[in-house]
């Protein structure tokens, strides 16, 4: 194979791009945003993958899609059961440290599918959410996932927003602002947006190459999760982010 200037040899980053394109057709900037890469780096990776036949670019839309070469290798998706299996112990530990309930979620049909749920470690009545679909725009899990999947976020915005409480996001500008804040700090927050009286904090779960494949978060009473300014308590943020990093290391 002849050498093409500017090719990137990072297998991890290339695999992350392929998994991203397995879910949607994206432009260079959207790939860069989803993987937290400079646009020039994302462009070089895509050029490399196009050179070996693993991606193709639509000349009309400039969007990239999986090429015939990678389709011959089989599915490029991530196994949700593997994600859940590797996260079980960390989720239990997070519930114990934070004193709050813990959920792990993935994107499904522009919503959040709860793949694991750990009850709050007390004697209060609770119901199991595993298998439930949650609104992406109104939950910390959802906003964390949408922050790293811009095409899905755009689709959610186009569909409009259901209001679950008086604090639920109801317009595109607010969603875009909060997703930007989530990406900048590395974790998401929702305060009484899905359920009145409840707040939640979530952080992304990454596989090799930095691809976000899920999110883990805690949820509990606003006065427990947030301070008097309705900001997330730093100690809880550190617990969530630390747990997410530990799971991500196991996934890499």
Tell me about this structure.
With 252 residues, this protein is α+β, with helices and mostly antiparallel strands. It has two domains: 11-71, Arc Repressor Mutant, subunit A, CATH 1.10.10; 80-251, Beta-Lactamase (2-Layer Sandwich). 44% of the residues lie in helices and 19% in strands. It is built from ten helices and eight strands. The strands form two sheets. The protein has a six-stranded antiparallel β-sheet with strand order 5-4-3-8-7-6, sandwiched between helices. The protein has a two-stranded antiparallel sheet with strand order 1-2. Strand 7 and strand 8 (212-221) form a beta hairpin. Helix 2 crosses helix 3 (39-51) and helix 5 (80-98) runs antiparallel to helix 10. The protein starts with 10 loop residues before the first helix and ends with a helix.
CATH architecture of the largest domain: 2-Layer Sandwich
Helix fraction, binned, reads: 40-55%
CATH class group of the largest domain: Alpha Beta
Radius of gyration, CA atoms, in whole angstroms? 19 Å
List the domain count as a whole number: 2
Oligomer: single chain
Give me the side-by-side strand order of the main sheet: 5-4-3-8-7-6
Distance between the termini: 29 Å
SSE series? HHHEEHHEEEHHHEEEHH
Structural class: alpha+beta
The backbone outline, from C-alpha atoms, is globular
Mean pLDDT: 89
Would you give the CATH topology of the largest domain? Beta-Lactamase
Number of strands: 8
Please name the defining characteristics of this protein.
single chain; 252 residues; alpha+beta; Arc Repressor Mutant, subunit A; Beta-Lactamase; six-stranded antiparallel beta sheet; two-stranded antiparallel sheet; 8 strands; DNA binding; Glycerol operon regulatory protein; DNA-binding transcription factor activity
